[in-house]
Amino acid sequence: MNAVDVRQRTNRRNILLLFSPLILIAASVYGLTYGSIPVTIQDIWSAMLERGSSAYGTIIMDLRLPRILTGMLVGACLAASGALLQGVMKNPLADPGIIGVSSGGGLAAVICMVALPQYSYLLPAAAFAGAFATSLVIYGMAWDKGASPVKIILAGVAVNALLGAVMNGVMVVYSDRVQAVLSWLSGGLNGRSWHHLSFMAPYALIGLLLTIPAIRPANLMQLGDESARLLGQRIELQRLLLMLLASFLAGTAVSVAGLIGFVGLVVPHAIRLVIGDDYRFLLPLSVMGGASLVVLADTIARSWFDPIELPVGILLAALGAPFFLILLRRRGKIR
After folding, report:
1. From CA 217, how far away is CA 213, in angstroms rounded?
2. CA–centroid distance for 262 within its chain
3. Average pLDDT of the chain?
4. Residue 90 region by backbone torsions, left for phi larger than 0, else alpha for psi between -120 and 50, else beta
5. What is the dihedral of CA 255, 258, 264, 266, to 10 degrees?
6. In a 3-state reduction of DSSP, which class is residue 306?
7. Cβ contacts of 201 within 8 Å, gap of 6 or more
8. At 278, is the secondary structure helix, strand, or coil?
């Protein structure tokens, strides 16, 4: 890469660092003001001061604000998880959904909802545990005096297919209860409240904070296993820890929002095309990009199709697939 390319990439990186927080703020304000009942900035300010004592205050403080904050954390966790998995696998197509981590959380949640409805209050914990256990199974299946990225991806694809089959089987057996889980499987934030936010926030914040010490090993992995070992890195241990961290983040998001796809795939991949592979910038920009995307997409999904509220997972899948194909075509043009 010549000096001109380096300068252009640095300029793009600085522009993203400057505008990403502004985009997140703009998406949040849009989410607060736009909906079946539009509100103004003045209404938002009054609601903050009156603490929900008016009709607008109830809409903003009890319905939209917790939903937006939950969407931020969901998007941030999914994007950070995808960025880490892409680094661990050395594959820009890796994300929590493709390698089966999200499916593990989904299966645990489906079992909890349709087979053991009396334990439905354990749904978030079950989804997280399922995602976490799936990551351990994938790593164990890929282990053979080491776990290469290719083996992990192949094991993940196989586990993903198996979990999908088991999930479909559970829904067939309990077909009379399937309606209750369809919206969750589609992925969405409908009805998410301060209760969901308070459950998710500690886990999400811990996971996102743990991405800070993960930056250095993620960068070293870009050099290749042999080079990283020569620099004194315990590459297998670091790969396992990064994979578990990515699973922790994905499980946290799945536990509240269901199976939302493409965020962990498209966001870090798009940012990587623009600024490169340096995780000092890739991770924080992915976090802000994922948060902005989910908040904006959720606002569109609940507002543009009135009176129907479209699950945000369906909208992101419909938009994410063609957008990702465009990114693939432009991959060779952005350096």
Report:
1. 8
2. 8
3. 83
4. left
5. -160
6. coil
7. 73
8. coil
Confidence of residue 335 (pLDDT cuts 50, 70, 90): very low
Q: What is the per-residue pLDDT for 334?
A: 45
pLDDT confidence tier of residue 311, bands split at 50, 70 and 90: confident
Judge contact between 152 and 145, C-beta under 8 A.
no
Beta-carbon contacts of residue 16 (< 8 Å; ≥ 6 apart): 271, 274, 275, 281, 285
CB 257 within 8 A of CB 191: no
Cα separation, 83 vs 253, whole angstroms: 15
Residues 6+ apart with CB under 8 A from 268: 79, 82, 83, 86, 282, 286, 289
Residue 10 amino acid letter:
T
Query: What are the counts of helices (DSSP H) followed by strands (DSSP E) for the chain?
Result: 14, 0
Tell me how far CA of residue 192 lies from CA of 48, 102, 103, in angstroms: 19, 19, 21
pLDDT tens-place string over residues 220-240: 877 776 776 776 677 778 888
Predicted confidence (pLDDT) per residue in 51-61, tens digit: 555 677 778 88
All domains of the chain in start order, with CATH: 65-290+311-330 (1.10.3470.10)
Distance between alpha carbon 332 and the CA centroid of its chain, in Å?
26
Q: How far apart are CA 88 and CA 251, in angstroms?
A: 18
Task: Report how far residue 239's alpha carbon sits from residue 139's, in angstroms, rounded to the nearest whole number.
Answer: 10
Q: What tokens does 261 get? A: 């796809």
DSSP for 69-83, written as a single string: HHHHHHHHHHHHHHH
